[in-house]
Amino acid sequence: MLESIKDLVTDANFDCSPTGFSLQAMDSSHVSLVALLLRADGFDHYRCDRPISMGMNLANMVRALTATLRTAAHAGPAPRPLGCPREEWADTRGRGGVRCAAVC
Description:
- This protein is of the alpha+beta class.
- It has one domain (2-103): Box (Proliferating Cell Nuclear Antigen), CATH 3.70.10.10.
- The protein is 19% helix and 32% strand.
- The protein has 2 helices and 6 strands; from the N terminus they run αβββββαβ.
- It has helices spanning 2-6, 58-72; strands at residues 11-17, 20-26, 33-39, 45-47, 52-57, 101-103.
- The chain has a 4-stranded antiparallel β-sheet with strand order 3-2-1-5. Strands 4-6 form a two-stranded parallel ribbon.
- Strand 1 (11-17) and strand 2 form a beta hairpin.
- The model is unreliable at 92-100 (pLDDT under 50).
């Protein structure tokens, strides 16, 4: 999904809220509108205590996610996200693959 979006939109702001992640952006020529919503109930673990907007370069994000998924089955424990307390982060890859977790 992000692979397709990155061809239309270079940089975008993802809005994180208790209900999920959302993105709405126009392409550079203002012809196409991209609207994306990743609902909180689509994640195994999701928590967003306060709304926040995160600017991201989509090509770099796709590259990072692709590399992470490619090596997830062969890597050791996943690193904790920056600022994530140890008690809130659990590496669940040993139980049937990579599981979604989001904390903001």
